[in-house]
């Protein structure tokens, strides 16, 4: 049940990112970190806000970005 709820939360996160003209398979957290790293001020604020929301998970946006890069959201047998 916990894994199912996490999958729903990730899907909703991806939907919000798409509604903001982002890639359909990227979470808003990952995008916020990626854009913050490129020096985009608005995304820097967005990433800081998301990190503050997830205060119990320090570095949430950076972790989300690394998870996307390593394809950790995919089933193990589908990863490169």
Characterization of this structure:
The structure is a single chain. The protein has helices spanning 2-19, 28-37, 41-53, 60-69. With 80 residues, the chain is mainly α. The relative contact order is 0.11.
Topology summary:
Blueprint: H1 2-19, H2 28-37, H3 41-53, H4 60-69
Helix pairs in contact: 2-3, 2-4
Task: Please summarize what this structure is.
By secondary structure, the chain is an all-alpha fold.
Average pLDDT over all residues: 92
How much beta, percentage-wise? under 5%
Radius of gyration: 13 Å
What composes the largest sheet?
none
| Count of beta strands | 0
Span between N and C termini? 27 Å
User: How many helices?
Assistant: 4
Q: What is the 3D form?
A: globular
Percent of residues in helices comes to 55-70%
List keywords for this structure.
single chain, 80 residues, mainly alpha, 4 helices
């Amino acid at each position: 049940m916990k894994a199912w709820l996490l999958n729903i939360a990730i899907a909703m996160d991806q939907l919000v990112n798409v509604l903001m003209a982002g890639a359909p398979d990227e979470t808003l957290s990952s995008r916020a970190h990626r854009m913050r790293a490129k020096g985009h001020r608005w995304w820097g604020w967005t990433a800081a806000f998301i990190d503050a929301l997830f205060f119990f998970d320090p570095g949430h946006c950076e972790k989300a970005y690394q998870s996307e890069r390593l394809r950790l959201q995919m089933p193990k047998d589908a990863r490169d």
